[in-house]
Write a structure and sequence with these properties.
Helix content is about 65%, strand content about 0%.
Length: about 100
């Protein structure tokens, strides 16, 4: 593909992206997304943004710990089920008695 065709295709892609309904939304990594209460102000207070950031980090850590607990519980359930299935195949399970 030559350079002119590549440039044309990139231009079309840029037009398609800017005309999409999601083009108005703020990116997730922007300061306004981290500090929504200060979105209308020109210079948000660093203390306010840090407070929001700390709260978001606490929520993420809480969610991470909950996910880890759930994963441990589900793995334990799978291991128990696997052991029971193996015992049933061998004839050592409770149905053999």
């Amino acid at each position: 593909m030559n350079e002119a065709a590549m440039t044309e295709r990139l231009t079309e892609l840029i037009k398609a992206i800017t005309s999409s309904p999601f083009a108005d939304q703020t990116p997730a990594g922007s300061l306004q997304a981290v500090c929504p209460s200060e979105a209308s102000a020109r210079k948000p207070s660093p203390d306010t943004c840090l407070g929001h950031l700390r709260l978001q980090i606490k929520y993420l850590l809480f969610d991470l710990e909950a996910t880890r607990r759930e994963n441990r519980y589900l793995r334990q359930m799978l291991e128990t089920r696997h052991k029971r299935d193996v015992d049933d195949l061998r004839g050592d399970g409770p149905e053999a008695l």
